[in-house]
Design a protein that fits this description.
- With 228 residues, this protein is α+β, with helices and mostly antiparallel strands.
- The chain has a domain at 2-49 and 106-153 and 191-210: BirA Bifunctional Protein, domain 2, CATH 3.30.930.
- Helix content is 37%, strand content 21%.
- The protein has helices at residues 10-29, 52-60, 70-79, 90-101, 155-170, 181-189, 201-209; strands at residues 2-6, 33-36, 39-42, 48-51, 110-113, 125-126, 129-133, 135-140, 143-150, 194-199.
- The longest helix is centred in the N-terminal third of the chain and has 20 residues, at 10-29.
- The protein is globular.
- Residues 1-225 form the Aminoacyl-transfer RNA synthetases class-II family profile domain.
- Keywords: ATP-binding, Ligase, Nucleotide-binding.
- One of its GO terms (biological process) is lysyl-tRNA aminoacylation.
- It holds the Pfam family tRNA-synt_2.
- One of its GO terms (molecular function) is lysine-tRNA ligase activity.
Length: 228
Amino acid sequence: MELYQAFADYTDIMDLTELLFVNAAVDATGTSVVTIDDVQVDLAKPWRRVRMVDLVTEATGVTVHPSQPREDLVALAEKHDVKVEKHHGPGKIIEELFEHLCESSLREPTFVTGHPVEISPLAREDRNDPHLTERFELFVGGRELANAYSELNDPVVQRARFEDEQKQKEAGNAEAGTVDEDFLRALEFGMPPTGGLGIGMDRLVMLIGGAASIRDVILFPTLRPEVF
């Protein structure tokens, strides 16, 4: 599910996300308490908010930031057996470190914020740090449940981001995007400050229903072809 709120930023969307999850749990089960790994967690309590770079710094014991030389981050990744591709820049290496060292430990609701610009082409630059963005991902039980950010509404900056994505794609990054002229043309007409949110509904149902596997909540799961 996606939603957008005009004249809002990612902090407003964080507040909205907490409200949505709590209300969904109460409406479905009569309580804001859910069970995560046999531990009861009250979703009504304030959720942790922490930057990705701070989590990786805590996990490695070494201060990390996208402004650091790439070779320093490559060495840190190798030390922790994290694979780095040739096209990975500092921001992507930090994300790889986060996914391998931190993600699974985020059991209670946690907003991971401040993603590097390199891995967030549609998100607004952090107003306090040009290397990071106003973005968050929500993790519960070691799984990502939501992704959101202050939308980048400057067509000039967005074009530069797209062009950088195109270069990454040509360098071998299959996940990188291309220049989207239709989207840029729409931005040129004008877009107010906006916060956007995407929620994985299947995982939300898993959380509220206490399901152990996503297969338990998908209405039409993918099955093997029937053999006659």
